[in-house]
Design brief:
Shape: globular
Largest sheet: 4 strands, antiparallel
Distance between the termini: 46 Å
Oligomer: single chain
Strand order of the largest sheet: 3-4-5-6
Number of strands: 6
Order of helices and strands: HEEEEEEHHHHHHHH
Helix content: 40-55%
Number of domains: 1
Strand content: 15-25%
Structural class: alpha+beta
């Protein structure tokens, strides 16, 4: 599919209005990520995706922190050392992530080269982790970057994403990880 077809494929109706993505990102032939204009702040973005399962595409889904946290737990169980390195990589991305503060920022941040190709070499190192869990490394990195941008755009001092990454890396108990990933507080 070309970009126009992908945008049509990732469009949906909400309150009888067609919602079209600002950007779409095909990942490994098994996922298509769409980014939409959100409503929480002036430059808020919404992240949605479709997943190919047995040659059929799912409905549009909204990713939650808990989804990728569970996938990381599976990867940790399979290869603790490399997964912890991968978490360090995601934490470094988190620390470099800036909020969207203008239309120009949004266009720049949603550029395919900026989101998918900038860390290609590093992502190849973690590719073997894709064999375990539901999600590929490319999908996890793209999703993580977009969720980080979304979080920091809505509240520049936000830290939930980093808190989840650190809980996973430090081997916190499952209750703590789930609580961090679902906004629950003790």
């Amino acid at each position: 599919m070309n970009n126009i077809e992908l945008k049509q494929f990732m469009s949906f109706n909400k309150d009888y209005k067609l919602v079209k993505p600002l950007a779409v990102f095909p990942v490994n032939g098994n996922f298509i990520v769409g980014v939409y204009k959100g409503t929480l702040s002036k430059y808020d973005i919404l992240v949605r995706y479709k997943q190919k399962i047995k040659n059929n595409w799912s409905r549009i889904r909204t990713p939650k922190h808990i989804h990728w946290a569970v996938d990381i737990l599976i990867k940790l169980n399979s290869n603790k050392k490399t997964t912890k390195e991968f978490l360090d990589f995601l934490i470094s991305i988190w620390s470099k992530t800036k909020p969207i503060k203008s239309v120009k920022d949004r266009k720049e941040y949603l550029n395919t080269d900026n989101l998918l190709k900038i860390n290609n070499q590093k992502m190849k190192h973690y590719k073997k982790l894709s064999k375990k869990g539901e999600y590929s490394i490319n999908f996890l990195v793209l999703l993580a970057k977009l969720l980080m941008i979304q979080e920091k755009t809505n509240l520049e001092t936000a830290y939930m994403f980093k808190k989840v990454l650190e809980a996973l890396k430090s081997g916190k108990d499952i209750f703590s990880i789930v609580s961090a990933a679902t906004h629950n507080r003790r």
